[in-house]
Design a protein that fits this description.
2 domains, two-stranded antiparallel ribbon, alpha/beta, 10 strands, binds S-adenosylmethionine, eight-stranded mixed β-sheet, Rossmann fold
C-alpha cells in the first residue's frame, strides 16, 4: 500500500518550484549542490525554479538587469543564472556556477575602495564616465540646501565610494556646511572638516547631529583658517599617520562672499592671490595625504568684464605645480544658483546680447599623490 502523505507536508514539486531562498547562504548551498551533477538537464531542473523565484520578485515596471530586490539581497542576478541554464554542457554550466559562487563568497578589492571587483556589474550606481549630470540634489538626514554655495551630496558620495574604504580618514579644508562630513558618517568613513566661519561650523555640526551613526565614524568639525592649521600636529592629535582622501571645494574666488573676513579665500584681493592661496594649501596638505591616494578639487569658472576666466584650469595648474598627478577632469552640470534663479530670463537675454554662454557646468579635478 502506498504510504499516505500527511496533509500539511509539502510535495517535492512544491519545494522545487518554490525554493526557500532568502539569503546568500541559501543560494550558495543551492549552487554548490549543482557542482556534483554531471547532467546538464539535472542542473537546469535545479536552477530554473531559483530563477523564477528571483525573477518573480522583480517589479514588472522595471526591466533592468539589477532591479529585483531579491537579486540585490542575494548578490546574484538572474542573467548570470540564465547563462548557467542556457549552457549546452554540464561542464560549461559548472564553470559559470563556480564564477557566480566566487562573486558571492570571495571579495576582490583594490587598496583604495571597497568595491568587490568579482561583482563589478553590481555597482551600476558608481559613475565611471567623466560627464556627471544630476537632475536634483539628494536631501534627507543631514543633507539640505541651507548653506549658499554648498555642493550636492552626490559629489562626495561618488568620490568616497570610488576613492576610500570604510574606516579611512578624509580631510575637507573648505568644509562649509559639512556635506562631505555627513556623507562620511553615512558611509562609515572618518573625517575632519575645517572652515573659517563659525556659522558654517555650527551648521555642519547641526547637520551631523541629524545623521545616523551606523558605523561609529569619528568626525571633527574645526573652526580655523586652513592655511594656519598645523596638519602634522592634526594627524598626531587624531592618532593617525595620514589621510586617505582629501576633498577641496574652495570659494570660486569672489563669486560668493562667505564673510567679511580677509582670510576667507572669497575675499582675497586678486585672482593671483587666490591662486597663490591654493598653491600654499596644496603644499601644506600634500605631505599628510597617503602615497598614491587621491585628492579632488571641485571648482567652477567665472566671468569678469565680459570675459570667461578659466579659474578652474588656473587652479588645476597650481595642484600640478605642487606635485600632484592629474587622473581625471570631470565636468558636472551646475544647477542655477539661488541668486540667478529669479533672473534666469535676464541672463539668457544678456547672453544673447553679449555673445556668451550662461554657466551650466563646473569641474571636479582628480589628482593622485
Ligand atoms: C564653496 S564653500 C564649501 C561648501 C561645502 N562643500 C558644503 O557642501 O557646504 C567654501 C567654504 O570655504 C570656506 N573658507 C574660505 N576660506 C577659508 C579659509 N582660509 N580657511 C577655511 N575655510 C575657508 C568658506 O567659509 C566656505 O564655507
Amino acid at each position: 500500500m502506498p504510504e499516505k502523505k500527511p496533509p500539511d507536508s509539502q510535495s517535492f514539486l512544491d519545494v522545487v518550484n518554490k525554493p526557500f531562498i532568502v539569503s546568500n547562504e541559501d543560494i550558495v548551498r543551492s549552487l554548490s549542490s549543482v557542482l556534483n551533477l554531471d547532467n546538464i538537464e539535472e542542473i537546469r531542473r535545479k536552477l530554473r525554479p531559483i530563477i523564477s523565484t528571483i525573477y518573480g520578485s522583480r517589479n514588472n515596471s522595471n526591466q533592468g538587469p539589477y532591479n529585483s530586490p531579491l537579486e540585490r539581497v542575494l548578490q546574484v542576478n538572474v542573467s548570470d543564472l540564465e547563462q548557467v541554464v542556457n549552457s549546452f554542457t554540464a561542464e560549461r554550466a559548472k564553470h559559470y556556477v563556480k564564477r557566480i559562487l566566487k562573486g558571492i563568497t570571495e571579495q576582490k578589492t583594490s587598496k583604495i575602495n571597497d568595491i568587490n571587483l568579482n561583482r563589478w556589474k553590481d555597482y551600476d550606481y558608481i559613475i565611471t564616465d567623466s560627464l556627471w549630470t544630476f537632475d536634483k540634489r539628494e536631501r534627507g538626514e543631514g543633507h539640505n540646501a541651507k548653506y549658499w554655495g554648498n555642493f550636492i551630496p552626490q559629489i562626495p558620495h561618488q568620490l568616497l565610494l570610488r576613492f576610500t574604504k570604510k574606516g579611512d580618514w578624509v580631510l575637507d579644508p573648505f568644509m562649509g556646511s559639512g556635506t562631505t562630513l555627513v556623507e562620511c558618517k553615512r558611509l562609515g568613513r572618518n573625517s575632519v572638516g575645517i572652515d573659517l566661519e563659525e556659522k558654517a561650523v555650527e551648521l555642519a555640526r547641526e547637520n551631523l547631529k541629524k545623521t545616523e551613526d551606523v558605523y561609529g565614524s569619528e568626525i571633527e568639525a574645526i573652526i580655523s583658517d586652513n592655511l594656519e592649521v598645523n596638519y602634522q600636529r592634526l594627524l598626531e592629535e587624531l592618532g593617525i599617520k595620514s589621510f586617505q582622501f582629501i576633498i577641496l571645494h574652495p570659494p570660486y574666488w569672489d563669486i560668493i562672499k562667505f564673510s567679511e573676513n580677509s582670510k576667507n579665500f572669497s575675499n582675497f584681493p586678486s585672482m593671483e592671490l587666490f591662486l597663490d592661496g591654493l598653491s600654499r594649501l596644496a603644499k601644506l596638505i600634500r605631505p599628510v595625504l597617503e602615497d598614491r591616494r587621491y585628492l579632488a578639487l571641485v571648482i567652477g569658472d567665472k566671468y569678469s568684464d565680459g570675459n570667461w576666466i578659466p579659474l578652474g584650469f588656473y587652479s588645476m595648474q597650481r595642484f600640478l605645480e605642487a606635485g600632484f598627478g592629474l587622473k581625471s577632469i570631470i565636468v558636472k552640470n551646475y544647477d542655477t544658483t539661488r541668486g540667478k534663479k529669479n533672473s534666469s530670463e535676464l541672463w539668457r537675454y544678456r547672453a544673447l546680447v553679449g555673445g556668451f554662454y550662461v554657466f551650466k557646468h563646473e569641474y571636479i579635478f582628480l589628482f593622485q599623490k
